[in-house]
Amino acid sequence: MAINKPTIIILIIATVAALAIPSASATEHIVGGDKGWVFGFDYQTWALQQRFYVGDKLVFNYPVGKYNVFEVGDAGWEDCYVSSKKKGLTSGHDVITLETPGNKFFICQAKNDEGKRCCEEGSMKFHITVFVPNDPGAPGKLHVVGDDKGWTLNVDYQAWANGKKFNIGDQLLFKYPAGKHSVFQAIDETSFKECIPPNADEGLSNGYDIVTLDAPDTWFICGAPDHCKKGMKFFVHASDPSKSPGFQGSRKLIPPKL
Q: Of 58, 112, 67, 72, which is closest to residue 90 (Cα–Cα)?
């Protein structure tokens, strides 16, 4: 079918206009939530718990003149470095629209009231990955194991897990002092019950470990001596979000006995 030139022009204008209109589903992310942009907050964990898409906005709230915001590259983020030619944002209510997919890096280049550098000493830095809406490669939800308590002794992790809904593709973040604990995926239910870790080189121990749930049933234990027997263990059942809702929860899950 032939299309005349006026029709082609109209189609081009309509396409450009559609791309220029922000998505109705775009999200405004208040950096740090109620805390805002402040010294000493764990922004990387906050960022990992969000999902960012093209068209979303980042909002940095802070007292005018106290802090600032710079978007940098990965090297600048790693070293807390900003070129002298680069201008930062300083309004106290800085809004950044995520216009393109990919990795983005943000830091603060200021000092707090005690003269400490906010990026190097105050954790005022984070990086994110921006996805195209409906991208099947986008990761699932991130769950911080133990919530504010992290991965430690004297926490009922099975009760924590039982209170969550997990899907395949979700991620678990284990936070703890490096070297004090570790994270192992038990081979099976028997190893889980008896607190038998797999080979030592299969464990995680950097204190900021992220595990992606890629199977329906997964067992986690701490490999430090006797920590598993003291309760640092839990079982996760993850649903497959690609299946029809009618099949989810069709069988009753009975967690293994601890």
A: 67
